[in-house]
Amino acid sequence: MNKKSDQKFIIDGVEIKRGETTRINIDMGSIYDFTDVKMPVEVIRGKEDGPTLFISSTIHGDEINGIEIIRRLLASRALKKIHGTLIIIPIVNIFGFNDRTRYLPDRRDLNRCFPGLKNGSLTSQLAYKFMQEIALKSDFGIDLHTGAFHRFNYPQIRANISDPRTFDLAKSFGAPVIIGSNLRDGSLRESVSQANIPMILFEVGEALRFDEAGIEVGVNGILNVMQEIKMIKFAKPRKLRKEIFIARSSSWVRAPRSGVHIPKQKLGKLVKKGDVLGEISNPFGDHRTLIKAQQSGKIIGISMLPLANKGDALFHIASHDPYIEIPFNGQIIEDLSNNDPVNSRYPKHDF
Ligand SMILES: [Zn+2]
User: Fold this and answer.
1) How many angstroms does the Cα of residue 299 sit away from the middle of ligand 1?
2) How far is the CA of 109 from the centre of ligand 1 (A)?
3) How many angstroms separate the CA atoms of 86 and 231, rounded?
4) For residue 66, what is the DSSP state?
5) Ligand 1 centroid vs 227 CA: distance in angstroms?
6) How far apart are the CA of 203 and the centre of ligand 1, in A?
7) Ion ligand 1: residues, Cβ under 5 Å
8) What are the backbone angles phi and psi of residue 99, rounded to the nearest 5°?
9) What is the structure's pLDDT at 337?
C-alpha cells in the first residue's frame, strides 16, 4: 500500500519529519575545477500520512518546461496541507542543464541508463543515485519532459496503460492525449515499473523554450493526480477532462525530399490517411512536394524547423485505439487549401 512514508523518511542521509519541508542537495561529485555538483531536491512531508509522490524534470538537460511547471506548482496553496510526502526534483540532469544539452558530459542519455550502477559511468552513477534515493522511496512518480530540439510536442502522457493503476494515474492527469507507449530499455519508466511503482511521463513543448499553455496543463495535471491519490483535497473537486485521445502506437511522417518545409496542419489536429500535412518547396515556390499522412490519427508532434532534409521527421501521429472505453468525440475538419495567405501557413499552437 501507499505507506512508504509512514516509517522514518530519509533521503541522502537527511531525515524529514512529519510536517517538515526540507531542501536537500544530493551530492553528485564535482566538475573539472573541483566545484561541487549537487542535485537540489525539495521534500514536503505532510503532517498526515499518505502516499509518497516524486515529480522529476529535466532528465534531458535541455527539456525545461518541467522546471517552470514545478516552480508554479510550489507556489500553489494546495501544497500547504498535503497527506503523505512530495519529493520534487526540478533538474535531474544538472550537468546537461548547465550546458543546455540533452546529454551528460560522457555523452550518454540518462534516460537509457536506468537503473544505473553504483560504480558505473558518470551517467550510470547519477541514475543509480536517483533510483535509490528518490524513485524507490516513492509510491508514485511523474516525470516531466519536453519535445526534442526543434520539435514541439502536443501535451501528452506516456504510460504503460496495460497496468490498470498506471492507466488510472494517466487518465487522472487530464492531458488531452495518452500514449500507451512501450517501455524503453534503460528508461526511468522501465526501472520504476519493474519495481511496481506506477509512473507516468508528461511531454509538452519544445527543448529550451517555455510554453505557457503546456505549462498550465502540466501544473493542473499534477494537482489532478495528487487529488486522485488523495494527497490533497479540494473543497470543490477538480473537474477532469472528459475527452482523452488514447493511442497505443505512434509514428513519424518523414520528409519525402529536402527543401523548405511549409506545414499545413496544426498540432493536435485529427487527420485521415492521405490528408496533406504540409509541403516541401524549393526556395522559389515553383516546385512543391506534398507530404501526406500514412495513417489516420492525431498530430502530437511537429518539426519547428522550416527546413528539412529527405528523411527528417516532420509530423508525429498517434493512432487512435478503438478498444479503449473513453469515447473519442472529435471532429475531422478539412481545411486544406493550397493557396492560403502566407501568414496562415504557419500553424499556431492551440490546446
Ligand atoms: Zn525527454
Assistant:
1) 18
2) 9
3) 9
4) H
5) 26
6) 8
7) 60, 63, 145
8) -100, 0
9) 36
> Model's pTM, two decimal places?
0.90
Q: Ligand 1 mean position to 335 CA, how many Å? A: 32
Cis bond upstream, residue 327 (ω within 30): no
Predicted confidence (pLDDT) per residue in 128-181, tens digit: 999 999 999 999 999 999 999 999 999 999 999 999 999 999 999 999 999 998
Distance 247 CA to ligand 1 centre (A): 19
Do the Cβ atoms of 219 and 270 come closer than 8 Å?
no
β strands within the chain, DSSP E: 9-11, 14-16, 21-30, 36-45, 48-57, 83-89, 140-145, 151-158, 177-179, 199-205, 245-254, 259-263, 270-271, 276-281, 288-292, 297-303, 307-308, 313-320
Only one residue has cell 506516456, namely 158
Do the Cβ atoms of 315 and 301 come closer than 8 Å? yes
The closest of 133, 192, 156 to 267, measured between CA atoms, is 156
- 291 alpha carbon to ligand 1 midpoint, in Å? 27
Grid cell, residue 32, equals 573539472
Three-state DSSP class for residue 227:
helix
CB 180 within 8 A of CB 159: yes
Q: How close is the Cα of 141 to the center of ligand 1, in Å? A: 15
